[in-house]
Amino acid sequence: MESTPSEISSSKMFGGYNKRYKHFSPTLGCSMTFYIYFPPSPSPSHKFPVLYWLSGLSCTDENFIAKSGAQRAASTEGIVLIAPDTSPRGLNVEGEADSWDFGVGAGFYLNATQEKWKNWRITLTSTSRYLPSHQLPIPINCPWGQKAFTNYLGPSKADWEEYDATSLMSKVRDVSATILIDQGDGDKFFPDQLLPNKFEEACRSANVPVLLRLQPGYDHSYFFIATFIDDHIHHHARALKL
Amino acid sequence: MESTPSEISSSKMFGGYNKRYKHFSPTLGCSMTFYIYFPPSPSPSHKFPVLYWLSGLSCTDENFIAKSGAQRAASTEGIVLIAPDTSPRGLNVEGEADSWDFGVGAGFYLNATQEKWKNWRITLTSTSRYLPSHQLPIPINCPWGQKAFTNYLGPSKADWEEYDATSLMSKVRDVSATILIDQGDGDKFFPDQLLPNKFEEACRSANVPVLLRLQPGYDHSYFFIATFIDDHIHHHARALKL
């Protein structure tokens, strides 16, 4: 199979293009797809800043591109959007599709160390300066986190902390750009799974500027994301000094 | 089954709510769903103008609500959006699901006269002044139209003309509001099926103001619709003098 990405679809939107690519990933050991939104370009060689959108549980590379409407602001700001898929596909690992919050389609951005899940190597290696995500990496102190981290990384909680945003915050230095988080207070996963207040506390302890906005009545859906995505695109554009 | 619509989901978006309802339709003889977007309301008894979105082939009541982003402009303009489903569902009429462009999921807004398809009674009866659609009613002089009209209405072309926008244009009087049409010139159905130029000609012959905009490079997808939907919402708001 070909590891060079080949274009499998292209649709114009807001003057730019949503393009979907397919390639064989030697890292994951399977064929993968991803979407890129290219804003209108002043010249064929123009270089754009890039934002990565990391989707969550049950998503593919398609949800954000089809439902968020982020391309509107990305078009006016001149930002490329990249939406990768959320897990390896088609490996037929036993139990990979037994539950919706683990295995296939579960957006845990980590490199598994347990033999059974060794193909789950989905951290991003990138030279881009920004990696926005529509939700915090799943925290270790919630049911989702404990299930996933135990299976992917084994029983040692010290290993889990490498992928826990709240734990990692104690190790960061010199973060000057504000971290913007929107959280619907009608999100059914808010109280027990997402724990954004713990992350906010960790940011404050580390003197990292954070703006956590509780949005009254909004749930976990793309209707919520579409409502606030423009704020996030503009936020990143300002931070990138576009 | 209950013919009074019952709410089956509600999600906040742009300050308003996407609500999906289910009801038993005595007219169609089956259970149906539809979506309504309610913009933010200044008072519980506030009355809003309504726009109906009539989806096309292969769609349900969900596509427009999930993918168009029309709620943004509907929220600021104070317009209710209603997205009905495109056909009866679950009747198990022989052959209803044999092809993607006829039967289940095919958005032909007509009252069938042929016995086999007698449940396909999906014209809208409404007191609203505007019925925008993302595509012209399928014309009779194209392959889609000839297949559908023959099956639903029988062989007489005179019966077909009742549902053909281009034919109907010769009968209208006193249309003062401009009809706005966007058409992607990269739409694979444009040359053979949609025939917007024929409709434009009919409007001009009838002195009906029409603005047909050919949009270079755009296809038939919701990426195209999302790009231009704001123009259409604002267009209707102006015509309604909101």
From TrEMBL, chains A, B:
<dbReference type="GO" id="GO:0005829">
    <property type="term" value="C:cytosol"/>
</dbReference>
<dbReference type="GO" id="GO:0046294">
    <property type="term" value="P:formaldehyde catabolic process"/>
</dbReference>
<dbReference type="InterPro" id="IPR014186">
    <property type="entry name" value="S-formylglutathione_hydrol"/>
</dbReference>
<keyword id="KW-0378">Hydrolase</keyword>
<keyword id="KW-0719">Serine esterase</keyword>
<dbReference type="InterPro" id="IPR029058">
    <property type="entry name" value="AB_hydrolase_fold"/>
</dbReference>
<dbReference type="GO" id="GO:0018738">
    <property type="term" value="F:S-formylglutathione hydrolase activity"/>
</dbReference>
<dbReference type="InterPro" id="IPR000801">
    <property type="entry name" value="Esterase-like"/>
</dbReference>
<dbReference type="Pfam" id="PF00756">
    <property type="entry name" value="Esterase"/>
</dbReference>
<dbReference type="GO" id="GO:0052689">
    <property type="term" value="F:carboxylic ester hydrolase activity"/>
</dbReference>
<protein>
    <recommendedName>
        <fullName>S-formylglutathione hydrolase</fullName>
        <ecNumber>3.1.2.12</ecNumber>
    </recommendedName>
</protein>
<comment type="similarity">
    <text>Belongs to the esterase D family.</text>
</comment>
